Amino acid sequence: MSSHVQFPGEAVEVFYFGAPDQPLYGVFHQPAANVRSCAIVLCPPIEQEYIRCHRAYRQLAVRLARAGFPTLRFDYYGTGDSSGDEAVMGLDVWLDNVGAAMEEAKSRGGASRVALVGLRLGAALALMAARGRPDVAAVALWEPVVSGREYLNELMAWHQEKLRYFLSNIVMDSGQKPTELLGFAITDRMFESLTSLNLLGEGQKLSNPVYIVEAEPDTLVNQLRQQLANRSTEVTYQNADGPRVWTDDPDKALVPNQVLEAIVNWVSGMC
Amino acid sequence: MREMPVQLGAGKNLVGILARPDDAGAVQSQTAVVFLNAGLIHHVGPTRIYVKMARRLAHMGFVTLRFDLSGVGDSRVRQDNLSLEDMIVDDLNRVMDYLAVTERVQRFVLVGHCGGAFVSLGMALRDARVIGVVMINAEGGDAGWDSYDLKRKTSRYYQNYYGRATLTNPEKWKKLLTGKADYGSIIRNVFQNILWNKLSATAFRARYAVLGDKSDSTRPEIANMGDGLRTLAQRDTQILIVYSQGSSGLQRTRLLVGGELQELSVAGKLKLEIIPQADHTFTLLASQERLTQVVASWMRAFIQESAGSKTTYQEGVI
């Protein structure tokens, strides 16, 4: 179930991988030359943020491949082109998906190690997936979601904003659990799963070097940075200006060049 | 239903997901459904609606392909310096040629949202293999109407913002009556963002209705939409036009080709469906489900009628 084609400078292959009853959509960018022994897995955000950042993510994959990294983009179960729907989605399922993606990337890239790069919720999943994995060479977090509760609040505020453009006035009940946000179902399982996410509550030491990049300093991200540093994790922090591609209109086709360049540079130095 | 990724076209740069019905013998009337990019959104469609529709139709027995045009989504840009229009036509030709060979289908239904809706119409006019088009929220492509749309939405936004929830909120009234409210902001929003935008939008629409299309900024495929629909109908190509309730695109289409809509509907060549409580990208799940049902029902009826098919349709669960 795969299709493969060679372009000048790189090869791109699209395929399904993972468990046969829950196939995941993957796009593998194979460098043409100077291939490194470390593969990259790009962990995407979810739902509306995933759709809006797609162009930037593809650009990031192309640039990483040009820097010599075999790079895998993929969709979590129940998102994008992967199988499944919202009914069984949750962080545990997606963490398993990141694990499967790491094995796939190493296998396809002939690599012994892997680096994880994640945006928003994808960054949280990348950090969680890296724990206890000696084969993870580095983790790059782009505007990471630190608190699932805070993240849900942001999505609810965004959803309410969108509802104000409707013909009739639809008001979310702020006291109720949302059943849908921004075009996607929020099941009880997913709501509870996201609510339980708190990277500041993760006690385990992380031995992998971590990179954090964000446009503007965020309090929770700063706390995460301090906590990681206090536990002897090697942390590099960088401010890099750029459009918020995960919320911007996809028809603007924005690509945050400075951020992508910063990520490629850091990963290239680490792996 | 089984999905597989495909790469095809010049240099195999085009990427898409092919969904095949479980039972190859159940392929309906040798007709494939091709989903076209909604603007620059990649082939999953806005709110992943293309995935839901493609899977529903595949369960019903249709081969479906959701793919990205060159330079969009997962598809690479082409290297042959074609114009945008020629590139789109050539990409779609290659997609249909590919499906004709691999899936043995000879007829195609093109489904497009937003800009993709106009692409579906334009391609159908060029290629007789296209026996049906589904145009969903065909909007944009005209600076005057884009500005009208923005004014209406801005007005609606602030109207809803200052709606019942705010007016019945004691805290808001307390702030207003104790001098703690931002009066400048309230006045600006009520008079400029609500009233002025509403007046301005109404004036634009009235002017358009009276004077007709006087804008040089209207893209030809929109200005000539009436001729296009009529040509397709004469060729027996079926047309489904879907709009979200209150869409400015619907208003424009009615003003521009209201006569054709009426005439072709009566002749059974065209169906206009309006989805209630829906925005441009079908944010609410109920509107997504309604849209999917509308497209699936139309496909079922249309294929049965056009092919004289006696096959039964297998409704599936996504």
Description:
Chain A is α/β, with parallel strands linked by helices. In chain A, 36% of the residues lie in helices and 22% in strands. Chain B has 318 residues and is an alpha/beta fold. Helix content of chain B is 50%, strand content 16%. Chain B contains 11 helices and 8 strands. An 8-stranded mixed β-sheet of chain B has the order 1-2-4-3-5-6-7-8, sandwiched between helices. In chain B, strand 5, helix 3 (115-126) and strand 6 (130-136) form a beta-alpha-beta unit. The interface between A and B is large, with 42 and 44 residues.
Notable features of this structure?
heterodimer; A: 271 residues; alpha/beta; Rossmann fold; two-stranded antiparallel ribbon; B: 318 residues; 8-stranded mixed β-sheet; 11 helices
Topology (elements, then pairings):
The complex is a heterodimer of chains A (271) and B (318).
Chain A: E1 2-7, E2 10-17, E3 24-31, E4 38-43, H1 47-52, H2 54-66, E5 71-74, H3 91-109, E6 113-119, H4 121-130, E7 136-142, H5 148-163, E8 180-181, E9 184-185, H6 188-195, E10 210-214, H7 219-230, E11 235-239, H8 257-270
Parallel strand pairs in A: 4-5, 4-6, 6-7, 7-10, 10-11
Antiparallel strand pairs in A: 1-2, 2-3, 3-5, 8-9
Chain B: E1 2-8, E2 14-20, E3 31-36, H1 49-60, E4 63-67, H2 84-102, E5 107-113, H3 115-126, E6 130-136, H4 143-161, H5 164-167, H6 170-177, H7 183-211, H8 220-223, H9 225-234, E7 238-244, H10 248-266, E8 270-275, H11 285-307
Parallel strand pairs in B: 3-4, 3-5, 5-6, 6-7, 7-8
Antiparallel strand pairs in B: 1-2, 2-4
- Poorly predicted segments of chain A: none
* Total domain count of chain A: 1
Spans of chain B of at least 5 consecutive residues whose pLDDT stays below 50 are 309-318
**Approximate helicity band of chain A:** 25-40%
Let me know the CATH homologous superfamily of chain A. Answer: Alpha/Beta hydrolase fold, catalytic domain
CATH class of the largest domain in chain B: Alpha Beta
Outline of this structure?
The complex is a heterodimer of chains A (271) and B (318). With 271 residues, chain A is α/β, with parallel strands linked by helices.
